[in-house]
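Internal tracking record. Fields below are filled automatically when a chain is submitted to the structure queue. Please do not edit lines marked as system-generated. If the sequence contains nonstandard residues, flag them in the REMARKS field before resubmitting.
Queue: standard
Priority: normal
Entity type: single polypeptide chain
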Amino acid sequence: MKPLCFASHTRILLYKTPKNLTNKLFCSLLLEVFDEYYDLRGSDDTTSKLLNGRQNIPSHIKECANDIDQNIVEQYFEKEIIPRININKKHISF
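SYSTEM-GENERATED OUTPUT FOLLOWS
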């Protein structure tokens, strides 16, 4: 099984988020664990390209992802991402 690209992974998570959580904010939240100053909220174009797979995440984010402690990512995900996911939305089937 191959790993999911950022766009696929994010689209799956976005399916379970409430309507008031914008794509820009959610993408920024996903990437802030690797660079707290990387903010997509001002860029519709970049967010759209990332979600459509037309643009890769920046190389410095990839480098940070390779070097970061997995526990930090897990803690961040539990604190910042999971609470924003609506568990009551319809189950995603593949």
